[in-house]
Write a sequence for this structure.
């Protein structure tokens, strides 16, 4: 499958916009995002969430992860699947988890079978994104990692809530959407939460 026309250029513009944010703007976004998440019972009552370590100007989840570690909410991080092409695994993450750097130069927990957590074990998955629209569509970095990993869980009513985490400047009027794109149930930015899941 090839990508839709225009998505490459859109990714480039939106990635430049988020990388242009100053350290002070990034810091403020990170703390406001943590505040927004703490207003959601799906977060405060979660037993386990999946987060990510920020890369390429993505919103930092440092404050969110610290809050979880203080509140008995277990945290997983994505790891590139060692066997299944362009899929992710989610591994348990603590302050003392041994880390390694993957081929995208992103830190991830070192692979250990006992640390693997199934998708169904999470209440909430926080997903980075490059672009989003007011319908909950998500444009990622173009690898299809989240799309492939979540494809078989899309229609499972017991699956985790899928939350796109974004800077305000990542919103576009309308994204070109491909059939394989897994949409967000909610999108959280520093100043607004969009709810698309009718159960929320
Ligand atoms: N469920 C799937 N099965 C097979 N191929 C897929 C699937 N989902 C996505 N792909 C492939 O992955 C490629 C990248 O997808 P896409 O451009 O939507 O990535 P993305 O959403 O930007 O990335 P990510 O999911 O990593 O955030 C597509 O060209 C598509 O062919
Ligand atoms: Mg996609």
């Amino acid at each position: 499958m090839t990508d839709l026309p225009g998505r490459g250029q859109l990714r480039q513009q939106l990635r430049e916009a988020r990388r242009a944010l100053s350290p002070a703007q990034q810091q403020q976004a990170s703390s406001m995002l943590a505040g927004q998440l703490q207003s959601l019972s799906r977060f405060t009552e979660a037993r386990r969430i999946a987060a990510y370590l920020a890369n390429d100007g993505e919103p930092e989840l440092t404050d969110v992860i610290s809050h979880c570690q203080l509140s008995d909410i277990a945290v997983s991080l994505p790891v590139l699947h060692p066997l299944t092409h362009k899929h992710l695994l989610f591994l348990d993450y603590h302050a003392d988890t041994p880390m390694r750097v993957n081929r995208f130069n992103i830190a991830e927990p070192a692979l250990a079978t006992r640390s693997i957590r199934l998708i169904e074990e999470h209440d909430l998955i926080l997903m980075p994104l490059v672009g989003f629209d007011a319908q909950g569509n998500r444009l990622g970095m173009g690898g299809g990692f989240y799309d492939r990993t979540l494809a078989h869980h899309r229609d499972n009513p017991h699956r985790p809530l899928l939350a796109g985490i974004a800077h305000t400047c990542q919103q576009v009027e309308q994204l070109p959407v491909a059939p394989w794109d897994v949409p967000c149930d909610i999108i959280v930015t520093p100043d607004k939460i969009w709810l698309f899941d009718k159960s929320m």
Remarks:
- The domain at 7-141+149-169+185-195 is CATH 3.40.50.10420 (Rossmann fold).
- The helical segments are 7-19, 23-37, 41-44, 62-70, 145-150.
- The first helix runs from residue 7 to 19.
- The chain has five helices and twelve strands.
